[in-house]
């Protein structure tokens, strides 16, 4: 994987930056020259990152881990403001973290599940954005990145709280893009299919189901968190993404297209005995 210093001099905040997609974004941003402040709830979650970052020349001095709860407004505001204070500016906020409640039907899902999921997903994105925009205005612009999910697209059963939260993030993307565009701040949303920690945990417990689901993807695999998913985020956060805003991107190897299909052999006449005859065009 080649790097080109596309984020040199930039300062980024990444929530949920110690595992899976968040970890991939932190590492990719550091390799591209950014200073990165990232969070997770426990310092224990940062052990692997510490080892990986230590292997990157000059990255340790540009990386800062903060123990913070993304469902806590004050801690999210402090995360953003302290990043700007430490490194002298703020250019990018990636709202990757999300709390996930046990799957339950709408009839049985308690209000507390909806509250927690919204707080750690939608409200997290709202709080960090509100805190970040004044800092971004000072430097002439910035990038806000939110996350959605295929579960939202497909109406995943027993995950209505999660689906609602991701739908709210998509709506926030469009509204924020409208409001902050005049400040040269772009706002976009990613719907990923990455080999994240959560995906691997599920796949380990449901091997046959996981293999069958991936076979339906046009690309026949999950995305690499650092190369594929973080690569798309990098593109939106670099100068190449400066005119892209208000969009929801499926970075998923075509997973969005895996709705059940009517499978036909090539040449099947599905209107047999009622088909209109083909007519050759003449010059």
From TrEMBL:
It comes from the Bacteria. Coiled coil: none annotated. InterPro entries: NAD(P)-bd_dom_sf, SDR_fam. CDD domains: SDR_c. SUPFAM superfamilies: NAD(P)-binding Rossmann-fold domains. Belongs to the short-chain dehydrogenases/reductases (SDR) family. This is 3-oxoacyl-ACP reductase. It comes from Sphingobium fuliginis (strain ATCC 27551). The gene is ditI.
